[in-house]
């Protein structure tokens, strides 16, 4: 179901958003009938609490939505999305919500209508919202559509979302927005000098490929690179079953950059966009690459393979090298890359690395503004020695276990050369249902990046 706001409707049911401290004053201005009903219902304005107030003929006259206290709201976001899920089907409008919270809550209400129902019918929120005054409803609808795409791609199991299907999703997007797409597959990867993309994906039934999508003819050049490992067995360093269960989401970086690209093109931002996705499956077969192998990347650097389960940085390395040849003004990679990042910041924060202080400043402010939390980790140069094995230029999996997210990011930075660059090591999965974010695939960092782009690129 498209995530859309309802048309302006004079009959829309008002939802009065009330903080706990304001309930008594609001009630004092209401009719006696309303006061009696609300008091009898036990409504206190606690966060997420709702009460439906009937009219004299039994229809819903209004709804009250508890907005709690600022201290309780600080522990989450999209609070009115939970209200949307409790309301009966109908059209509603918000009353009493501060303008500083209107955009976040309106987007959360839209996202409460998301459900992944490809394999089983689901029950998303049915309550439709009229776009609040002062909110750019069309912009939020585009953002919600991009987020919905990211979630759908991540939620789809590898049986139905291999490299072939990921390419098809890119082609569909290219058709929708008039973008150009070029795909290099199979042995052509070797002919066109993408050796590590080929090596990681060659053991799978579906051929590895590099997807290259371009949109826009004018403006600054932005390149997005997304890890598209559609399933990760770990290769010959086979993962245990408990670690393999969520590996359909290992293409979450690709899904997130595609969601972001959908937002950029849907909003018609004045820039030149390029999306590069190395799409592979890291499988086990007689021709799988091995621990101890030394690979030569597109840029000529040699890489010793000390763990075939550290494959994402390999395919990204070729894609990043290729991207720099186009001289982008800014380049971003997104990947579900390391467990170390999850240990560091948990599943709800999008950790990122950059040497571009202007981007970091703009992103931090934007993340707060659009309720899309991020956290900066360092490109700590003294750790460079940890990714230099001696026998080759680079080590894909340094021993010792220290600073795993940082060493992975440093590995990627070697292939970004002198390009202005940021890397996001995301999780791409919401392990516990929360308002506007059901359990499952989720975009991380994309909305914050979108908000920051005008300042970063001078749009």
TrEMBL record:
Classification via Gene3D superfamilies: Leucine Aminopeptidase, subunit E, domain 1, Zn peptidases
Residues in Cytosol aminopeptidase domain copies: 307-314
Keywords in alphabetical order: Aminopeptidase, Hydrolase, Manganese, Protease
SUPFAM superfamilies attached to this UniProt entry: Macro domain-like (SSF52949), Zn-dependent exopeptidases (SSF53187)
Keyword Hydrolase: yes
Superkingdom per UniProt: Bacteria
Record has Cell division as a keyword: no
A GO molecular-function descriptor: aminopeptidase activity
InterPro entries according to UniProt: Leucine_aapep/pepB, Macro_dom-like, Peptidase_M17_C, Peptidase_M17_N_1
Record-stated family: Belongs to the peptidase M17 family.
Name listed for the protein in its UniProt record: Leucyl aminopeptidase family protein
Provenance organism: Roseovarius phycicola
